Amino acid sequence: VDSALLSLACYSGIGFALCKRLLQEDAGVQLCLACRNMQKATATKAMLLAAHPSAQVSLVHLDVSSLESILWAASEIQHRFQHLDYLFLNAGIMPNTHVNFKALISGLFSGEAVHMLSTAEGLLTQEDSVTSDGLQEVFETNLFGHFILIRQLEPLLCRLEKPSQLIWTSSSNARKSAFSLMDYQHSKGKESYSSSKYATDLASVALNKHFNKQGLYSSVVCPGLVMTNLTYGILPSFFWKLLMPVMWIIRFFTNTYTLTPYNGAEAQVWLVRQKPESLDALTKYHSCTSPLGGNYVESRKMDVDEEIAERFYQKLLELEKQVLARLTVPLSPK
Ligand SMILES: NC(=O)C1=CN([C@@H]2O[C@H](COP(=O)(O)OP(=O)(O)OC[C@H]3O[C@@H](n4cnc5c(N)ncnc54)[C@H](OP(=O)(O)O)[C@@H]3O)[C@@H](O)[C@H]2O)C=CC1
Ligand SMILES: CC(C)CCC[C@@H](C)[C@H]1CC[C@H]2C3=C(CC[C@]12C)[C@@]1(C)CCC(=O)C[C@@H]1CC3
Known about the structure:
Distance between the termini: 24 Å
Bound molecules: NADPH dihydro-nicotinamide-adenine-dinucleotide phosphate, ligand LHIR3OJJ
Oligomer: single chain
Pathway: Steroid biosynthesis; zymosterol biosynthesis; zymosterol from lanosterol: step 5/6; Steroid biosynthesis; estrogen biosynthesis
InterPro entries: 3KSR/17beta-HSD (IPR052834), NAD(P)-bd_dom_sf (IPR036291), SDR_fam (IPR002347)
Shape: globular
EC number: 1.1.1.210, 1.1.1.270, 1.1.1.62
Subunit structure: Binds to the short form of prolactin receptor.
Strand content: 15-25%
Structural class: alpha/beta
Keywords: Endoplasmic reticulum, Glycoprotein, Lipid biosynthesis, Lipid metabolism, Membrane, NAD, NADP, Oxidoreductase, Steroid biosynthesis, Transmembrane, Transmembrane helix
């Protein structure tokens, strides 16, 4: 197969909505779903094929929090495809999240209420853990695993005559002050999610610097606040259902309450239609929804320093060298 579209984490949430929307736009695309739960992935493939019987959908097992799994998946993908047009880096976790309700209530009565409700600044903390690779789980899942995958798939992504696009799912919760170059895995703090999403923004900027001349382009999107398993891990789903009328009212003050996975995938779908050369490396593309439910994309400059992005990129390359040297086990599918 010459060209395909590889999407990470697709059987629920924004990833699944993205796959449905891509097939609605063009039923002829070759879709490869990279997921860690093959049972759920098989059911997802069946649902996609039921709606688009002539679509070409394949599956590959991938756990982005395991280097062994990433290397195996990358070699499998290289056997199947010669080129990837788009790689959607969408897998993400926000584990053991605690909401600071005191800050939420006082924030609602401050001048910063809209900013707080769209970025969650000051509202959330997480308890992170360490993976079997010895890395911080949120860092490895949300960023580093994807980074290693990209590096392994370089031969399928870097072709000057046929550009490829990396599309990362970042967040409005990405925050410079949560990230530190000295502790880029965020092993000491309690805002591992914010840190990992800021690290995503930095990595995308640096990848553009290093790979544009080889025909590889990277962009970050923000899907807004979307009701998915990720948000149901923050507050129970019945609570979110009760809050729905409040969130429709909040839509009059901020366009970031996209709420449905379909709306949240707007920026990813929009990016597929753009010429990658025309995109700005320092811009984040936000899915937005108006009070009446209309979807559109807004471009916003990221709070990213190119020199820090480059220093972080060098640290990622160093870490890559270390972890790959540690991996001595023979690779086999899980
Ligand atoms: N929902 C929101 O409001 C927002 C979400 N985002 C981002 O959007 C992306 C998609 O999340 P969303 O759709 O909301 O939530 P979901 O929980 O529905 O989707 C996350 C997906 O990531 C997969 N995943 C998690 N860990 C791994 C892993 N180790 N290897 C492979 N796949 C993995 C999950 O698979 P499994 O089911 O097996 O766990 C799941 O399919 C994430 O990057 C998230 O950070 C950004 C801004 C806002
Ligand atoms: C709707 C409100 C009256 C009550 C909800 C309060 C908070 C639980 C939410 C306010 C802003 C939200 C938010 C996220 C999670 C839930 C909130 C903190 C995210 C962090 C979810 C994942 C992201 O990537 C970005 C979101 C920003 C906004």
